């Protein structure tokens, strides 16, 4: 998925994804092909699931 598509799915701006990549803050898996950054939809969905919290 393109960065814009991933950002829309996650609910953030593309620049936020860039900051997360640079800082390693949320460890969202990505693939780098030359200068292009891509995300696998299955990885993004797994990542979202792992971030799900329940309130006790």
TrEMBL record:
Entry's Gene Ontology molecular function annotations: DNA binding
Q: Which InterPro entries match?
A: DNA-bd_dom_put_sf, HTH_17, SinI_DNA-bd, WH-like_DNA-bd_sf
Record domain Helix-turn-helix: where: 4-51
Name the chain's protein: Helix-turn-helix domain-containing protein
Domain of life (superkingdom) = Bacteria
Pfam families assigned = HTH_17
């Amino acid at each position: 998925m393109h960065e814009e598509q991933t950002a829309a799915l996650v609910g953030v701006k593309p620049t936020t994804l860039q900051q997360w990549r640079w800082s390693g803050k949320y460890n969202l898996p990505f693939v780098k092909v030359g200068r292009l950054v891509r995300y696998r939809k299955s990885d993004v969905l797994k990542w979202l699931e792992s971030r799900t919290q329940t309130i006790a």
